[in-house]
Recover the amino acids of this structure.
């Protein structure tokens, strides 16, 4: 996993993770941003009782964002103690940070943001102006090395490793201030990494089945007929979304406004049709079915992931306010 100058979870990652929506009553699906290689496996996530886990609810995206904000705040405090500057990233509002999955049925959100292209552009601009990276680059070579060591333990820190459900090995650095922040929030950074890496990479094991599922495909066809009646003949939500991205990267302000207006029209029709045919509820129900088939093998990781998320949320609520 490449070293970064900001916590690994970003709003962009959160917005692009969901295939259909929340994995109902089973797991919170979040990309880890870690790399998959080809190495040997290590220990699995700690076991947990199914009955206890049944009483643990999944996090909302706002709660997940609050944990991410708390992690950044803790890292900032820690880096300051080591004599370095570190700026927390709150580029997006809570509304802008909302995940946009395969199914988007919030008509009002679509009317304001389309499919989120302007939000993604806003994030891209923020990344290009990353103050932490600029600050690190301004330091001397020895101070850069000290900065890296303070942030994540530096190059000598042992990597955390775990086997990905679909094969290969996921690795991550978790030393320095990053490791301290995770320890404060989750209790055991290594246990959290194993559970999170497993749960966040279950999707390849079932997404193909979900997209081929008869009930879900039937709902998508009904959605498609609704879209055709609205003047937008697309076979599925992904095709509708991709159609709004077929434009030149270099646009005048007027051209960009026209492109966004078209994106908004399609996104509003998409959300309206998705709501009319209950596409989200069908997708979530069928997604839960396929994830449920994996519970026998990955139930311990799912349970541990949810417990540790709740532990982190309780800590985060004492560290940072909710984003507005």
């Amino acid at each position: 996993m490449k070293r970064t100058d900001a916590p690994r979870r970003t709003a962009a990652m959160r917005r692009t993770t969901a295939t259909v929506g929340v994995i109902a009553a089973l797991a919170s699906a979040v990309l880890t941003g870690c790399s998959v290689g080809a190495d040997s496996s290590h220990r699995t996530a700690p076991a947990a009782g199914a009955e206890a886990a049944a009483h643990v609810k999944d996090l909302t995206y706002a709660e997940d964002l609050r944990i991410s904000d708390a992690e950044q705040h803790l890292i900032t405090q820690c880096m300051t103690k080591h004599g370095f500057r570190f700026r927390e990233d709150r580029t997006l509002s809570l509304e802008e940070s909302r995940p946009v999955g395969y199914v988007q049925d919030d008509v009002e959100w679509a009317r304001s943001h389309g499919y989120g292209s302007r939000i993604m552009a806003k994030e891209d601009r923020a990344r290009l102006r990353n103050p932490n990276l600029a600050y690190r680059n301004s330091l001397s070579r020895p101070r850069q090395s000290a900065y890296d060591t303070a942030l994540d333990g530096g190059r000598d820190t042992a990597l955390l490793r775990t086997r990905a459900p679909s094969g290969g090995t996921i690795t991550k650095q978790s030393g320095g201030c990053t490791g301290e922040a995770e320890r404060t929030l989750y209790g055991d950074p290594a246990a959290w990494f194993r559970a999170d890496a497993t749960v966040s990479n279950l999707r390849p094991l079932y997404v193909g089945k979900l997209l081929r599922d008869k009930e879900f495909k039937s709902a998508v066809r009904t959605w498609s007929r609704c879209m055709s009646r609205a003047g937008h003949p697309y076979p599925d939500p992904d095709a509708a979304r991709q159609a709004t991205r077929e434009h030149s990267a270099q646009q005048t302000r007027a051209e960009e406004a026209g492109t966004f207006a078209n994106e908004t029209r399609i996104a509003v029709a998409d959300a309206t049709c998705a709501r009319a045919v209950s596409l989200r509820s069908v997708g979530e129900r069928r997604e839960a079915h396929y994830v449920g088939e994996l519970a026998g093998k990955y139930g311990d990781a799912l349970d541990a992931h949810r417990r540790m998320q709740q532990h982190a949320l309780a800590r985060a609520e004492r560290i940072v306010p909710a984003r507005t």
Summary: The beta strands are 35-36, 160-163, 169-172.
